[in-house]
Write a sequence for this structure.
């Protein structure tokens, strides 16, 4: 490919609307252009990278028994009514009517469509297991799409669905996909982690997320230094042991704490550590009033709270609710005498006493509180967010927190959809059984963004060879010069025969401008061909990720280039 006849509209400046580095660089490198909010055109190099990602996904999915197919983007509303999700999803589900006024949606995911297909086509245990997948455009009408391809409304996803005769089979399918995903992210040359994750709205018992490690990632991962434990912070379990302590000798006593409503203010005033103050958080869970208690120096994990309450939706109580439930202004809530439907407490609170809590009276707190004596606690649960000070829940080792970008998520679905849509098979004994499902997603377009978030510098993108639109760029400093042009064409042709995806920069621009552009688009290897070099019988080669430069002899180009290429691949674990 010759740059002068290709189409890479690079930009000198960061576009103002781009907030994160991958969005800035995808625009500046001429890989995407916004059509409208959250919807992007993939320009030639952007599409080329997406195709490389898809090819690796496809190869590994096939290797792990996935069978590729393609479902429509437009889905009939009836299927979503059958699965009882038509109402459950609000405006994020883009709906419309056709000329006959029939309801449709643009598919945000395809559980309903694939289950409808399977219930029609699979009748016998002999046809199971099967794993079908597609690589296809999805649409989710995010209220605030931002960050370019990281959170678009229209995006490319590989979504796979497995169908088994029973849970044991489904676990085997799940394990196959987990291995496939590890292989995919290794072959992409990305630093990633498979982490235990919350299964969220789609239910099911079990899920893993695949996170590309990047400081700008939105998710936080708890990882153990000493074992292979890794979990999304939302899910990370906090083990807590202690032994029951004697009841607090002193009775609960009210103290005036005028205007003091944060944990630290109260702790300072009463000269107690924050860990002796109980934080009382008030919520509405499916309409019920809930108080959740954690130690003052801990953070409540709302996902854990929602899961133990088995709530569809959980929201912080509003000021009006707080004042009516506690009879006090915000900041003085406590478990003693609190009239809510249920009080739940973090595990830590059952192994200590002599607490400070809000008094459910404005400007007053209680001290010497003993929860067993003074309050009605409706259960102790793991409710808090893990910290680096907590021991690993698996091996008691050291936990450390890192940031990640979710690029894959695999779920055990159980019979949630086969039950709702009657997808059954006849077993050996002719008995009708529900099919057991799993689903497995990879954000193909999001991987392109995550790859840039993980690998970039002040000069632009640093692509792994597996994803780079071009693995090498031959920069002809003055292509019009007959000798330079000839040598450049020669190297370009030679690289192509070596199987290198190469771009020849034959543009009639100043060297400095070309160097900046080539750094920006992120090709792993640059070969500079100029008159001076040719006179000395050398080409200059630069490795993008390290900035290392080499002068390699023209008459030994093949071997020298091959060894540089090998080092670059090794750097990305390829
Ligand atoms: C919707 C809308 C948004 C959604 C969903 C449904 C996420 C929805 C979860 C999944 C689960 C898996 C197969 C591939 C891997 C992920 N956002 N989810 O179900 F209607 Cl608007 O998509 N599906």
């Amino acid at each position: 490919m010759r740059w002068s006849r290709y189409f890479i509209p690079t930009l000198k400046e960061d576009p103002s609307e781009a907030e994160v580095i991958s969005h800035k660089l995808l625009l500046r490198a001429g890989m995407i252009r916004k059509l409208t909010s959250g919807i992007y055109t993939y320009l030639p190099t952007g599409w080329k990278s997406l195709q490389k990602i898809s090819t690796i996904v496809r190869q590994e999915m096939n290797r792990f028994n996935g069978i590729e197919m393609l479902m429509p983007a437009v889905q009939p509303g009836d299927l979503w009514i059958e699965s009882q999700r038509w109402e459950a999803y609000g405006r994020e589900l883009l709906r419309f009517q056709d000329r006959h006024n029939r309801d449709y949606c643009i598919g945000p995911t395809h559980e309903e469509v694939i289950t409808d297909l399977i219930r029609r086509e699979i009748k016998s245990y002999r046809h199971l297991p099967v794993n079908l997948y597609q690589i296809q455009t999805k649409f989710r009408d995010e209220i605030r799409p931002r960050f370019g391809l990281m959170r678009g409304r229209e995006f490319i996803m590989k979504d796979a669905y497995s169908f088994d005769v029973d849970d044991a089979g489904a676990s085997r399918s799940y394990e196959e996909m987990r291995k496939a995903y590890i292989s995919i992210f290794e072959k992409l040359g990305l630093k990633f982690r498979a982490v235990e994750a919350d299964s969220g709205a789609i239910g099911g018992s079990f899920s893993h997320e695949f996170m590309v490690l990047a400081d700008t990632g939105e998710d936080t991962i708890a990882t153990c230094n000493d074992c292979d434990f890794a979990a999304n912070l939302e899910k990370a379990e906090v083990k807590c042991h202690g032994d029951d302590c004697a009841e607090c000798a002193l009775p609960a006593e009210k103290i005036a704490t005028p205007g003091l409503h944060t944990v630290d203010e109260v702790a300072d005033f009463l000269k107690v550590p924050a860990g002796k103050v109980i934080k009382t958080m008030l919520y509405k869970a499916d309409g019920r009033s809930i108080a959740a208690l954690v130690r003052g120096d801990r953070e409540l994990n709302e996902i854990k709270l929602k899961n133990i309450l088995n709530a569809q939706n959980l929201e912080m109580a509003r000021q009006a609710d707080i004042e009516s439930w506690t009879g006090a202004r915000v900041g003085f809530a406590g478990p003693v005498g609190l009239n809510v439907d249920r009080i739940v407490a973090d595990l830590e609170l059952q192994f200590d006493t002599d607490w400070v809590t809000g008094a459910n009276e404005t400007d007053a707190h209680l001290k010497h509180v003993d929860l067993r004596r003074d309050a009605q606690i409706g259960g102790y649960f793991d409710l808090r967010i893990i910290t680096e000070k907590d021991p690993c829940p698996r091996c008691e080792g050291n936990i450390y927190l890192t940031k990640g970008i979710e690029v894959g998520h695999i779920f055990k679905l159980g019979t949630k959809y086969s039950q709702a849509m009657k997808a059954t098979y006849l077993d050996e004994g002719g008995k009708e059984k529900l099919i057991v499902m799993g689903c497995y997603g990879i954000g193909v377009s999001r991987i392109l963004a995550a790859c840039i978030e993980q690998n970039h510098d002040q000069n632009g993108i640093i692509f792994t060879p597996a994803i780079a639109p071009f693995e090498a760029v031959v920069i002809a400093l003055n292509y019009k010069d007959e000798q330079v042009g000839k040598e450049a064409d020669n190297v370009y042709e030679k690289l192509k025969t070596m199987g290198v995806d190469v771009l020849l920069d034959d543009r009639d621009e100043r060297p400095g401008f070309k160097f900046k552009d080539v750094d920006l688009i992120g090709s792993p290897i640059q070969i500079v061909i100029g008159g001076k070099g040719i006179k000395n019988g050398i080409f200059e080669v630069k490795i993008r990720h390290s900035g290392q430069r080499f002068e390699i002899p023209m008459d030994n180009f093949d071997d020298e280039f091959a060894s540089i290429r090998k080092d670059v691949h090794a750097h990305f674990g390829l």
Q: What stands out?
A: The domain at 253-381 is CATH 3.90.960.10 (YbaK protein). Residues 89, 92-93, 108-109, 140, 159, 202, 409, 411, 439, 441 surround 9G3 (CB under 6 Å). The CA atoms of residues 38 and 299 lie 33 Å apart.
